[in-house]
Amino acid sequence: MGGWRRFERQEATLDYWQIRQDGIRCFLKWGSGRSPGKASTTTLDDEEQARRHAARKISERLRKGFTEVDPPCDPAEAEAGTPVLDFLTRSVGPHAPVAPYLPVDGFDEVYRRALSPDHPRGFLEYYVLREQGRSAVRFAVRADSHQAEVVAGFLEFLCARRDLAFDGRSHHKVPLPSPVGSFDHALFCSPALSQACAAHPEVAARVATAFPVFDCEIGDEDTEVLVDARIHGHASLPYSDWGRSPYPAVDLRFDVEPSYYRPSRKFKVHRAADLQKLMDLLPQASPQSWLEVRSFRGETKRLEPGTSLSFADVFSFLAG
Q1: Is residue 239 part of a domain?
Q2: Per the structure, how many domains does the chain have?
């Protein structure tokens, strides 16, 4: 994880601007004495693009009269030796009601807490610890889809691979040796990709994520930016719902006119609803219009105004 760089400009008030690059992401913070601070995150296609993006942003600030100063103390360094669960328990404050982290019987260094388990939107949160608790792999299960035996099957698999999300790669899609409920694969996400504890920068770089998925939900050759879009974007997987049906990866590029969709010459992550709308538009579109669909295996289908394939046919292709 890269450190923060801070820039300041003294005018009527002191304006500040900070940037930090972490892999394919650039994090920004800015503000002044006149307003509360703000923050944003930009996700790029690869690390080189992220480096160029950060350099361009810094050049813009220097041209506007900002000067680089010593960065603020990194809260992650101050808490580096604090066990993850100790920090999370402490961070909620002394007066807030806190559900305790309780050990899970039969599993070494695995803890669970229940957050409003009787509420329709409640969930159970699991932490598989490593390095004497200084880092962890987290997953959550919605309470209405939680089944103890299914979770136990996933924990057996995860506990034997708790280091996998910390090996330097952004993600791993791994076949399960036996099904976990209806799922046949697991996805391991690094701390940078998972953003599991983004609200707690003190431990964010020490908490990864793993959860079961269907094979068709994550592309076999997906880059980090595509996985990021699948789990965090507008077409994101409801991955804490362990009772869901498959959500096949829907990667589209197209030029359909007339249409309220902006043409895309590059495959991007979309929703199944977008695919259906574009297919509905295609029969009446201009003869030059086209739509390409890519499956999780990297196979593609090209659709044109005269194509006779139905949405059910294409969805079956995506689901494998």
Answers
A1: no
A2: 3
For residues 320 and 317, give the distance between their C-alpha atoms in angstroms, rounded to a whole number. Answer: 5
The answer to whether residues 161 and 167 touch, using CB atoms and an 8 Å cutoff, is: no
Q: Judge if 227 and 90 occupy the same domain.
A: yes
Report d(CA 267, CA 274) in Å as an integer: 13
| Residue 279 CA from chain centroid, whole number | 28
In a domain, residue 238? The reply is no
User: Hey, what are 73's tokens?
Assistant: 């103390």
Residue-wise pLDDT tens digits, 8-53: 999 888 999 999 999 999 999 999 876 778 999 999 999 999 999 9
Q: How far apart are CA 208 and CA 127, in angstroms?
A: 10
Which structure tokens are listed for 227?
A: 């996985």
Contact predicate 20/26, CB 8 Å: yes
Q: Which domain holds residue 227?
A: 83-232
Other beta carbons within 10 Å of 200: 17
> How many CB atoms lie under 10 A from the CB of residue 113?
19
Q: For residue 246, is it within any domain? A: no
Measure the CA dihedral 204/230/126/214, to 10°: -150
End-to-end CA distance of the chain: 37
Q: What is the mean pLDDT of residues 78-92?
A: 88
d(CA 156, CA 14): 53
Q: Give the distance, in angstroms, between the CA of residue 55 and the centroid of all CA atoms in the same chain.
A: 24
- Residue where a domain stops, chosen among 165, 197, 232: 232
Same-domain check for residues 257 and 197: no
